[in-house]
Amino acid sequence: MSQLEKSFYSKSSMYSFIVVVILFMSMWIGTGQFSHMDWMLFGYMVSSFIFFIGMTVRLTSWIMRPATHEVIKRSIQKMKSKNSQKRNGKAIFKTLIDNIILQKYIFKRGVYRGIQHWLIAWGCIGSLAITFGLTLGWMHFKLVDASTYQMVVFNIPTIQMAADGWLAQMFFEGLNITASMLLIGLAMAIIRRIRDKDLKVTQRAEFDLFPLYLLLAVTLTGLFLTVSYKLLGGWMHPQLALIHQITVVVFLVYFPFGKLVHLPMRPMAVSVPMNYQETPGVDTRDCSGCGELYSNDEQIEDVKAILGAQAFDLKNDEGDWLADYCPACRRKLRVMSQLNLPKGAGKAAPVQTNNGIHMPGFGRKRSEDFYQPAHSGKEEL
Amino acid sequence: MRKVMYLEFERCIGCRACQAACRECGGHDAKERNYVEYVDFFENRQTYPMLCMQCKDPACARVCPANAIQITEEGVVLSAMEEKCIGCRNCTFGCPFGIPKFDFEENKMYKCDMCYDRTQHEIAPMCASVCPSDAIRFIDHDEMMDLRRRRTQMNLIEGKKPSENNKWDYVPEFFGVYSD
């Protein structure tokens, strides 16, 4: 691998090259040596390639971050180990159902937000799946006889369906369905962005609002295409198709570098139950200060490794690490050292002053010889 | 004009007004993000307030595998971005001061953001604006430097009495408290 890596300019260029080769081969297979290419979608195809290259570059640089790298390393180690097979399977299954398909934790942040996010997320995933499937030629439809369609996936003929049956309708209207989901979700999101004043504090136009309006543009122009050919007799269809294509191209090129990239990063949530929780929600490591359970050995090990990789020196004078203490003990350690009462300094005593006026603050108890007359020790010399 | 947070732990009277105020801050979702804790409950009732240090190079952001903790132009370290946070709690274990809190229900981390909606316009954060004993203050940088100097001078008074022929006993015992 390292030999291969040396022949490329960087890691991300190597992975991009591999991704492009795989995509090209999948197209070659999917379209039957490029005999079923849909040249109407050429622009989408080129931007899909840019999307995948951008995504590879983005994800490579993300995984190279010390923190991400450490967590992924631990996940791979867990995947390989035979002892935790059952736990891995359970973690992946539970995360897939709860966090990705149902998105339960967002519903807990608010039902409105949950519905909004679910509609946008699945609208996007559905639309992207259909877009890539068609533009890269992974699937196409073949007319078997006058009233029967057949779906061809990777050049393998699969299900047949009546051309006017409900299944065929579902497939043909697929993008309209996902676009309607997106439209509802986006409207809800925009209303939330306008109404919720708390959001305005940290929201950034280029990060939070741009993708929202971009998605809206894609959705509206896409839906208007349907309106144009169904209701308006194809009015302005070529121009509208071009406008839609432009919005989609901007969307695909933007996707890997903006807010929306949380979509491919999100599945890393599986590493939490898989790497760090033998039983979800139960801590097993005890604090070296108060003895209370606060974390898990593997997680603390990882945190120390990440901090070490970035030259954070969070070692105490006693030789233990701050990560060995629970958050409450860490807060206390900090306060005590600021008050000049490090560990082992004994009990806090009131600050004593020469003039007897009480000062705010804690002090150390003074040794008895402090109260001896000032020059008593010196006279013996 | 640069404003800074200035904490004097020993001034805390344990009224927890700062926590009540924190719950009221916009975007805090009625959950407090600061702490008021006992120094040693079995010894006395002295408490101390604790807020985020807003580190320049925050350990919490460095240990975040999702790159979710962002820093504003002003240097305020924000809570994890909700769309990125995967809920691993690395930040709570990485922070040397034990500041980030974790919401297990909503699966996200939240931490003191110095009431960013207020402080970005140089309005005191909620906790500082209600603290009755000035344990938490939001003051000019110059005023803070003054207070620090005064602390060091007071330390000189607190130091050991000077003895004849030994001026070095002037060296204060408490020099470390707020010195540079």
Automatic annotation (TrEMBL), chain A:
Show the InterPro entries listed in the entry: NarG-like_sf
Where does the source fall among the domains of life?
Bacteria
- Statement: the UniProt record of this protein carries the keyword Transmembrane helix: yes
* Region annotation Disordered: where it falls in the sequence: 344-381
Alphabetized UniProt keyword annotations:
Membrane, Transmembrane, Transmembrane helix
> Transmembrane segments in this chain: where?
12-29, 41-64, 118-141, 170-191, 212-232, 238-257
Query: Can you say what this protein is called?
Result: Nitrate reductase gamma subunit
TrEMBL record, chain B:
What keywords sit in the KW lines? 4Fe-4S, Electron transport, Iron, Iron-sulfur, Metal-binding, Repeat, Transport
Please list the residue ranges annotated as the 4Fe-4S ferredoxin-type domain: 3-33, 43-74, 76-105
Q: Name one Pfam family in it.
A: Fer4_11
The protein in question is named Fe-S-cluster-containing dehydrogenase component
GO molecular function terms listed in the Swiss-Prot or TrEMBL record: 4 iron, 4 sulfur cluster binding; metal ion binding
**InterPro entries with a match to the protein in the record:** 4Fe4S_Fe-S-bd (IPR017896), 4Fe4S_Fe_S_CS (IPR017900), ET_IronSulfur_Cluster-Binding (IPR050954)
Q: Which domain of life is it from?
A: Bacteria
Please name the PANTHER family in this protein's record: ANAEROBIC DIMETHYL SULFOXIDE REDUCTASE CHAIN B-RELATED, PROTEIN NRFC
